[in-house]
Design a protein that fits this description.
Length: 394
Amino acid sequence: MIARSEYVERMRRLRERVAEAGLEAFLVSSEDSIYYLTGVSYRPLERPFFILVRPQASLVLLVPALEQEHLRAAPNVDEVLHYWDYPAPVGQGWAERLLALLDGLGQVGVEPSLPQEIAGRLAHLSPRMLPLVEELRVVKSPAEVEMLRDAARYADLAVEKLLATSYYGVSELELFAQGRAVQLQIMKESGYDVLTSSVLVGSWPAPLSAQPHGVPTIADRLEVGPHIALAFLRVNGYAAECERTYFLSPPREEERSAFAAMMEARRRAFAMVRPGVGCAEIDAATKAFLHQEGLGNRLLHRTGHGFGLGNHEAPWVAEGSTDVLRENMLISIEPGIYLPGVGGIRHSDTVLVTREGYESLTRAPTDLASLTITASKRLHRLKGALIRRAAGVK
């Protein structure tokens, strides 16, 4: 877990950056940023929350009235103020209370994610948009690395369960059900903050796996072609993922060739991971190889992204990114090849940048032999039939 002293240090560093930017105040408003700075989990829904950060003055948290007592647990704010609700009678809403706090201040900074509704009420202040909290979050502390390592362990466990449950003709219902088993194990071993934990576990069946963000139904079956097992987790605030392409019948030549190309692209990407390397360089080199292999028209996305409080955050392993790798950053390596009508070929790992190179925190098997599953699995078939009958799925 993250110690109280670390939250205090995070706020100290933010105040330092606010001063360096020449701001009189900085307004923190995103859920992840407030959680990062305070460690208090909450759900804003339609009601906005704010931390007013000033270099020398008191730190003020402004929240809706029903959250005031809950947010008093924040270890590093001086005052917890409230507005009535959303919407509220004239004079009792968030806008009036916030503008009163900002009255008389000079240059104010805001986060890039500030909602348009709030930005409109602050327009007369001409605020500067600065990613100050995002910049703090991008390099992880030792305690955060351990939290991410824990999340990656459960991502591996989820993929292990998906592969163990899979057989030719398995339904998505049976595979999505594995998410509950993983969730229960997290609860048993690590506790479970319901507001900062989530479990998405399942397999994307061929040929739908050629659409990375397509949505399978619980009645879909996994048969011929490349399927993608996916574990997309956030465990007590910190996120990780593991993905593996696998087969439930012997892969065809086109699939074998694409799998080999994906593995070589991964190898090349991993070989570049170390402090000082530009994320855009990794993506460019990976894509250049796949273009060289004649697969340039079979690519749909970048090589990777960062992890932390979110499953997708900086640094971005993509051409066009200005991010440069530093020790204790977390990234994914996941070049993908997508064959229309056939399926997708992609592994993804959660990767820690170390002083000398990298450490993959997810360690599920990656080779084609281990990921070609042809056993009949009679017991799993019987269990699957019972699960489908109970859910009314044929």
